[in-house]
Amino acid sequence: MKIAKFAFGLICLTILASNIVTMSRWSEARGVYDDICYLRQAHLFQRLGIGGFNTNTALDDDGYFEGKLKEIAFDEWQDQSRWPCHNPMPGGKLVLQYPPGTGFLLALFPEGRQVAPLYIAASLIVCGLALFGIFMAPTLTSTVGAGLFGALAIYLMINPAKASYSIAPTMAVCALAGFLTALWLIRDKRSVLLLALIGLLLGASVSFRLPNALLVAGYCLFLAGAFTWSRTVSSFVQGLAFGIGVLVGMIPTLVAHAINAGSPFATTYGSVDAIPPGFDLAVLGQYLRDMQFVLIVLAIGSTAWLFFDGKQRARQVALVVAGNLAVNLVFFLSHPIFTPYYIVPITMLSLWTVSFAWLMQAETAREAVVPAGLEALPR
């Protein structure tokens, strides 16, 4: 089994090294509007500090964004009303539509070399958790499973994560939250602080993508159900701790909305983005032909397997994941627009959670057997 652990660890590190080489060659002017808009937010943070929460186009008096538009040959670079990713707000100002988290993380790196370091840092987190899963696996079967999933997770940091800068940090958060969720439900003592940390991470992920707010759905359903069933102070405190964690994590987004849209609960997205739900067979067909469909099948299949084959605690993990999957899949599959990364966050959060729950359950079972065997040994 040690050979298998070493082999899969080496495979994961090889994929990581290949990813780093590829990421280091990426251009920050590939012609994608979202890219330069995230970079404008980063520039504002580097230039104005906390004042970078204000994304009013009037602050582009140094010509930074105009220069970025020229780099990608945007014809109407002089007309701010035509700038991509910007929407009019009350008072006549134009602001960025995106939450501030991705831009803030990009601002941590030197201008001109921001994207590659962000992706490399996120990939290191994902790889670290993948290696941890491999080396904590107690059996050959679990080692192979953890190794295959780890290799897949690291590969996905190139494709489809490259489609949007917001996906890289989201993938890292999903990996961390998946590990902590399994730890919270599988271990004997359920820590309120650990649950609050999960809420904090998922709340903070909203600062990368607003739809990440849906990642808390399964947790809310599970905690609400637990309180309704038991009506105990402990279950109430757990729900409260999770809610506070989510709220604290969302503070940067709420602040950005208050500054740019006039209210923490207003949106900086325009009316053109408010697309009503509706199942579209053409869109569903695109998902069927995309890598996301494979991830959906893996997430649903592994969750069902954990529920029917796992012990009581593992089944509770499966319930959280199932609720999360149901809410997110209904939302995104009924959203009549296809992108190559919409469903990636929920599927990866689900797979990370199920993977670590499986590994921790197997490890816990082994630890329970060893003392019983030791008791039979001669003293």
Automatic annotation (TrEMBL):
Protein name listed in UniProt: Dolichyl-phosphate-mannose-protein mannosyltransferase
UniProt organism field: Bradyrhizobium daqingense
Keywords: Membrane, Signal, Transmembrane, Transmembrane helix
Leader sequence segment: 1-17
Transmembrane stretches, start-end: 116-135, 140-158, 164-185, 192-210, 216-233, 240-259, 291-308, 317-335, 341-359
